[in-house]
Specification:
The chain is mostly helical. Among the domains are: about 35 residues; about 100 residues. Helix 5 runs antiparallel to helix 6.
Length: about 210
């Protein structure tokens, strides 16, 4: 039974081969058509792939940042100067911290110092006048004796009072200087203290 099946299978195979040979002999262009069909399909796939790559390139060109190149003549014409970058080391000691400072307090200090300097000037004038009057009365009392001793004593008391007022005005100025130095840095307060009747305008401008 198996031998008959083998014979039948061989017969079918032989007939199939014969039919294929006859078809190729009758239509010799069939194999060429198949090859052309395969070539067309391959070319279409390659064309589609190329178009997709072109679209990707266009998208990348659209999203890419604009790049402008300038030669030396254009740089000179536009007034553009270029510098070469160089590495640098920034140490913590080089860091500086700054803050905006309200200078209204300095203006108030100016008025206060001016008042204190004026008070000292007035006290000096008063003390000098009292001293001269006391010396005059002492000279008269010694020379002619026409001046009572009580008047000399009154003049001396007036001079001592004027001198005490002068010392008090000086102490107040010294206290104000110390307070100003504590409130502000020494570089600012030193110039302001050494300039009577005004604060240094240069110092105030530098604070802005």
């Amino acid at each position: 039974m198996s031998a008959d099946r083998k014979k039948l299978f061989g017969l079918i195979l032989a007939i199939s081969l014969l039919v294929i040979i006859l078809v190729l002999m009758i239509k010799p262009n069939a194999s060429t058509s198949v090859s052309d069909w395969l070539a067309n399909i391959t070319q279409e796939h390659e064309t589609e792939a190329s178009e997709e790559e072109d679209e990707d390139d266009e998208d990348e060109a659209t999203t890419a940042p604009l790049l402008v190149r300038l030669d030396e003549s254009m740089l000179d014409y536009a007034g553009i100067e270029t510098l070469n970058l160089s590495s640098s080391t920034l140490l913590p000691e080089f860091k500086a911290f700054a803050a905006v400072v309200d200078i209204r307090d300095l203006i108030q200090w100016r008025s206060r110092l001016n008042r204190l300097h004026s008070a000292i000037t007035i006290a000096k004038v008063t003390e000098n006048a009292a001293r001269l009057e006391w010396n005059r009365l002492k000279a008269l009392a010694k020379g002619t004796g026409s001046v009572a001793s009580k008047n000399v004593n009154y003049a001396e008391t007036a001079w001592r009072e004027a001198n005490a007022n002068l010392q008090s005005a000086r102490f107040q100025l010294d206290d104000a200087k110390a307070e100003l130095t504590q409130s502000w840095c020494e570089s600012i307060s030193s110039t302001n203290i050494s300039s009577p009747y005004r604060l240094s305008s240069d110092r105030i401008d530098n604070i802005h």
